[in-house]
Amino acid sequence: LPLKIDIIKHPNEIDGKSTAVHAKLLAPDDVTIYKYPCIPEYEEKRHEIALIFPGPNSVSVKDIAFHLQKYTKKGFCSSDDDCSREPVLKQAKIEPEAEKNPNECISSSRSEGTGLKKIIFIDSTWNQTNKIITDERLQGLLQIELKTRKTCFWRHQKGKPDTYLSTIEAIYYFLVDYHQEILKESYKGQYDNLLFFFSFMYTLIKDAKCCAGKE
């Protein structure tokens, strides 16, 4: 995957009903699952991390670069309006290295445009998210909302809009948008395998409902 993924899982979220484990099984080197209240310290790296969660302050994927730039400035300024110190990039010149690993160059160029290195997802029912999203360790992080995607999850919660996605759907759609909007590359199914188990379960349940005459 082009970015590392942290998933904060609600302790009452049943493993058998959670789609977060799909991501861990299919991309084990890039996905880490934490069971709340266990949350890593993000404060020092908030300029390179985003939280995927709908809310009044959430921005779209295409605006990540602009907003993370502001977070970077805030991280080195005593206040939002006044910076007494020079920007970090101007303080020292980095000497060019003699040789670079080609793979490192590709990796660095992928995140060069935004500075984004990690994304965080919350895995819980929508009614349980409040306790996690209000945790002080997640405050101050840039929030991203996937406003144009609709869920296909078979346990859609009543009273919630169909743009509220299951965890694996949110991961998949974010990566597709990131690939197109930020990396500026055409999408050719690179992340489709993340939906392998989701697609299998969707088909299984749909067929079962059809056989039972419910659809």
Automatic annotation (TrEMBL):
Principal location: nucleus
Q: According to the UniProt record, what class of enzyme is this?
A: transferase
SMART domains named in the record: DTW
Short name of one Pfam family for this protein? DTW
Q: Which residues form the DTW domain?
A: 1-210
Per the similarity annotation, which family is this?
Answer: Belongs to the TDD superfamily. DTWD1 family.
Tell me, in a sentence or two, what this protein's role is: Catalyzes the formation of 3-(3-amino-3-carboxypropyl)uridine (acp3U) at position 20 in the D-loop of several cytoplasmic tRNAs (acp3U(20)).
From the Swiss-Prot or TrEMBL record, give the protein name. Answer: tRNA-uridine aminocarboxypropyltransferase 1
- Provide the species name: Loxia leucoptera (White-winged crossbill)
Give the classification, highest ranks: Eukaryota, Metazoa, Chordata, Craniata, Vertebrata
What gene is behind this protein? Dtwd1_1
